[in-house]
Amino acid sequence: MSAQGPVLILVGPPGSGKSTVGRLAAEHLGVPFRDFDHDLEHAHGLPAGELVVRLGRERFQEAERELLTALLPEFTGVLALGGGTPTAPGVPELLAPFHVVFLDVDLEHLLRREGLVSLHPWLMPNPRAHLRELLKARRPVYTEVAAATVPTSGRAPAEVLADVLATLPAATG
């Protein structure tokens, strides 16, 4: 665990609860919260989904890594990463010194999350197939970078928060 940088980083697919649980964790710990997708949008002037289309996957991942490299040493709160951020080349190594928690969610619960498809239009026209492939490809990366995995399917944010906080080292939590 690093002395500098975020006290907690949340990873997981879109719709897993990273922003919701991240805000609650930050409030509980008395630290700021940041949503990395919002940081990307602020830095580049476009939402992450549009930025991927504009830049292409490879350049988008470079932009993610560059921004994360600048952010990690200076931000000392709770950080919710974009769903694909941990898959960018070099990002797993950047995350290694920090306490990372994977918010795991199953396909059926993701498909029920209201607004998920409208927020992520790249899931169309077949959200089930796209999400199934996304989970299959990303779950091993999330597991690799995380110190702990907390299931979110069918659970209230407060329940998930309690489990996330329980993973923190005693000095932090």
What is the element layout, followed by pairings?
Elements lengths: L7 E4 L6 H12 L3 E3 H9 L3 H8 L1 H15 L6 E3 L10 H5 L4 E5 L2 H6 L3 H4 L7 H19 L2 E4 L5 H11 L6
Parallel strand pairs: 1-3, 1-4, 2-3, 4-5
Polypeptide structure, described:
The chain is α/β, with parallel strands linked by helices and 173 residues long. It has helices spanning 18-29, 36-44, 48-55, 57-71, 91-95, 107-112, 116-119, 127-145, 157-167; strands at 8-11, 33-35, 78-80, 100-104, 148-151. The protein has a five-stranded parallel sheet, with helices on both faces. α2 crosses α4 (57-71). The protein is globular, with a radius of gyration of 15 Å.
